[in-house]
Amino acid sequence: MGMLAGKIAVVTGAGSGLGRAVAQKFAAEGAAGLVLIDRDKAGLADTRETIAAPKSCDIHARALDVTDSAALADAARKAEAAFGGADIVVCAAGIIGPFGKIVDCPEEDWLKVFAVNVHGTFLTVKHFLPLLRKRGGGSIVNFSSTAGLVGDPLLGPYSASKGAVTLMTRSLARNHAAENIRVNCVCPGSIETPMLQSVFDDLQDDPAAKAQREREFIAFHPMGRFGKPAEVADAVLYLASPASSFVTGISLPVDGGSVA
Ligand SMILES: NC(=O)c1ccc[n+]([C@@H]2O[C@H](COP(=O)([O-])OP(=O)(O)OC[C@H]3O[C@@H](n4cnc5c(N)ncnc54)[C@H](O)[C@@H]3O)[C@@H](O)[C@H]2O)c1
Predict the structure, then answer these.
(1) For residues 16 and 208, what is the distance between their CA atoms, to the nearest angstrom?
(2) 188 lines ligand 1 (CB under 6 A)
(3) What is the pLDDT of residues 61-84, one digit of tens each?
(4) Would 159 be classed as within a structural domain?
(5) Relative to the CA of 143, which ligand 1 atom is closest?
(6) Ligand 1: does its nearest atom lie under 6 Å from the Cβ of 21?
(7) Residue 66 contacts residue 93 (beta carbons within 8 Å)
């Protein structure tokens, strides 16, 4: 028996980093069914390989883009047919977008980061929230960021999109509290995943600048280190599980104190 014994969970962005860590944690905590979503089919297969799920955990992988409403609707129909509903939805799919000042951001890059981070979260909730109703309620956990709580001089478009996720989460919490559907988000600081690595690899032609950026990012965290994916997955587990049964509408920093 674990904290999620018998629960059915949907996780987007499950093909890498934090979504993968959440899927692993949920399986270890006794989830009875997992619907794993990502546009990266190979990443999903790798995640599945790494899950030491007991035979009682039924894992369905769906390779799709979260900006594709029809594909998400189809995945929700299949999940309902397989499980009759769901208890947990985790929206972790996201992209970091362009570096630099907002005013210099090409329009198509601005639209792309909002398409995935904001519209993709909206569509996932839109299509999967009805499955929570089928089970009498549940928990939605969105992925914002510390950059969704304070402005980010390097990642302005990303920060704006995550700010939208933070307030989408709070409005959803108010919309659905009476239906016993809780909606919260996590706001990770810098966590060791391929996405964080891309922030440094952006400077790989200039090793001194790359090392300097790494030092600056670490210095932003009073605990003096980057976070581990499992540390974020633990926070998501808390918000997804009955341990947080009277908690809705919060934006939980998991950031070594960076917005303290
Ligand atoms: N790693 C960090 O430091 C950090 C900090 C704060 C917030 N976050 C957020 O956490 C979430 C997970 O990030 P991560 O670090 O694991 O990144 P990651 O790049 O390792 O994983 C993101 C996953 O999302 C998938 N994805 C991206 N766009 C998609 C789309 N349109 N449709 C379907 N799948 C898509 C990717 O294929 C990938 O598997 C993101 O929302 C990110 O913004 C990460």
Answers:
(1) 28
(2) yes
(3) 999 999 999 999 999 999 999 999
(4) yes
(5) 41
(6) no
(7) yes
Q: Residue 84 domain-assigned?
A: yes
pLDDT digits (tens, 9 = 90+) for 213-255: 999 999 999 999 999 999 999 999 999 999 999 999 999 999 9
Of the CA atoms within 13 Å of residue 105, those in its CB half-sphere come to: 24
To the query of whether residue 238 is one of the catalytic residues in this protein, the response is no
In what helix (H) or strand (E) does residue 90 lie, and over which residues does it extend?
strand 88-91
Asked if the structure places residue 194 within a domain, the reply is: no
pLDDT above 70: percentage of residues in the chain: 99
How far away, in angstroms, is 235 Cα from ligand 1 center? 16
Burial class (CB in 10 A: 0-12, 13-18, 19+), 101: exposed
CA gap 217, 190 in Å, rounded: 7
Q: Of the listed 26, 114, 128, 158, which one is catalytic?
A: 158
